[in-house]
Every structure is written in C-alpha cells, then in structure tokens.
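Progress note, project year one: complex with flavin-adenine dinucleotide.
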Amino acid sequence: MTAPAVPETAYVAPRTVAEAVAAAATPGAAVVGGGTVLMPQRSRGELDPAVLVDLFGVTELSRVTATPEAVLVGATVTYAALQRIAEPAVPLLPRLCAGITGGPQIRAQGTLGGSACYANPASDVPTALVALRASMRLEGPSGSRSVPAAEFFRGPHLTDLHPGELLCGIDIARGAPARWGYVKLKASESSWPLLTAGARLDPATGTVDVTVGGAAGVPVTVTLPWSGRDRVSTEDRLLLDDRLTEAVDTWWEDVLADARYRRRVAAVVAARAVEAAIATDGS
Ligand SMILES: Cc1cc2nc3c(=O)[nH]c(=O)nc-3n(C[C@H](O)[C@H](O)[C@H](O)COP(=O)(O)OP(=O)(O)OC[C@H]3O[C@@H](n4cnc5c(N)ncnc54)[C@H](O)[C@@H]3O)c2cc1C
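Model obtained:
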C-alpha cells in the first residue's frame, strides 16, 4: 500500500517589504513572524499553508526607529529586543516583554507584530498597544494604511488585516507626560495571562484611562476622573466595575477562565494597574 502523499509547503524568505507583500498575496500563504504560534498550529494540523512567508530576512521590519514625534517598532522586533530598549516614549513595553511567560526562548523568538496579529484577547500585546494609543502600519496589495490599535483588534483572533496584508510596524507617538502602570493576572507562574491591564494617568487632564484585556474579545478602555489622589479608593473600584460592565458586551472565556470569573476580577486587575501607575514615575 502506498502512503498518502504529504502536501508540500513552499518556503519563501523575502528580503524587502515589497517582496514580502507579493509573497503574502500568494493563495494559501501564511506569514511567519517568530513562528511560536504558527508553527505549533501547523504541527498540530490546524493549518496547512501552501507557502510559508518568513519575515525574518526583511531587516527593515526588525528595527526600532525613533523620531522627535514617535517611535516606530518594526513588526518583527522580538520581546527580547524590546526588553532592552530604554526609550521613554515607549513606556510599558520593556516591562511587559520581560514578563512574557515562556522564558528566554519565547522572548527571543516571539515578535510584537506576531502577537498583535494573533490577537489573543488575553495576551499582553493588544492591551498594551491600545493603552499606548499605538497605530498599526499595514502594507498590502492595495498599498499602505495606518489603523489605530483600538480599531485593529476586531474580535477574538480577528484583526483589521485584509487578505494579503502585512503588519509592518507599530507607531507610538510621543505624548504628553503621563504615569503608566501595567499588571496581569495569571493562573500560575507558567500560564498565559487571564486578564491584563494598562493604566495611563494623565495629570494634565485629571483622568486615568485603563485598558483591560481578557475581559472582552478585544481590549476595552474606561476612563475615570483623577485629581491627584494617591490611592485607589473603594469608590474608584466601584466606578471601575460599573464602567467595565458598561463597556463589555460579552465577557471573554477560554480554557483558562470562564466569563463569570473574568467578570468578577476585571475591576480588581484594573485597579491594580492604576495603583501601579500611582506608584511609579511611568517608565
Ligand atoms: C510558552 C509560551 C508562553 C507564552 N506566554 C505569553 C504571555 O505571557 N503573554 C502573552 O501575551 N503571550 C504569551 N505567549 C504568546 C506569544 O506572545 C506569542 O507566541 C508570540 O508573540 C507570537 O509571535 P510570533 O512572532 O511567534 O507569531 P507567529 O507565530 O509568527 O504568528 C502568529 C500569527 O500572526 C501572523 N503574523 C505574524 N507576523 C505577521 C505580520 N507581520 N503581518 C501579518 N501577519 C503576521 C501569523 O501568520 C500567525 O497567524 C506565549 C507563547 C508560548 C508558546
């Protein structure tokens, strides 16, 4: 008896964004950032791409570029590289990257762009990018466009990427000085996050914005008045709870935690992020 033929997967390693866009437009193509999600999916038989388009050789996607107005983080910049950047315009990211579960292997291989495109509701990256008011630079067969992170995440594992489009970079504007806090809740030391929260305390406007991931299918942001208080009061916690209840249509659930649990603890995690912002200088 002859064994069934195993479908072959072509491998393409473009050197430029134009080559990568052309390759990604090939029918059945799958783009590889670090491959830490995609390759296990392929091994489990959940994906059977005709072509793997490996972005590793596109050097312009692996750079962090600072200008007076903004910092552009290329899509294939790894967690490990971001951990090392000392750029005040990009708060949250170094701290977040240092806390990615999975150890040095995942931090050295996983990319900011790959995590954004995977759009796991409970992941760290979507929450942080929405909290930072980042913009996603997309490049595809129809040209370039820029989409605010808050609009890029469309649902669980669903983004605004059109077929054949690549995420090329993430712009983070240098905003007014603010104090930042970031926390995540995990089931155990080795678990993925259950809930994540990034807080931006803006002394100029007297408000605090808290973006919470893992509560809904996409990150949600709520705003509270904040006038110089140095602790989170019971009233603040109740207000956070009310605002999150208003903001979330359907509570997210996955194998790690059900919707009821997330509903109960979301405001606690959000309050901890505000406490972290109060306690730090925002770096
Ligand atoms: C053991 C382990 C622990 C982890 N712990 C955490 C954690 O604590 N917190 C957390 O948030 N995450 C965690 N993760 C998830 C981790 O963040 C992701 O594995 C990683 O960021 C995905 O990045 P990647 O570059 O490997 O993506 P890939 O696997 O390369 O790609 C993921 C998806 O995005 C697409 N894609 C990739 N790059 C692009 C691009 N530039 N344009 C268009 N599409 C693209 C791919 O086609 C694929 O569909 C963990 C993962 C593992 C395996």
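The chain has ten helices and 14 strands.
The radius of gyration is 19 Å.
No further modelling is planned for this target in the current period.
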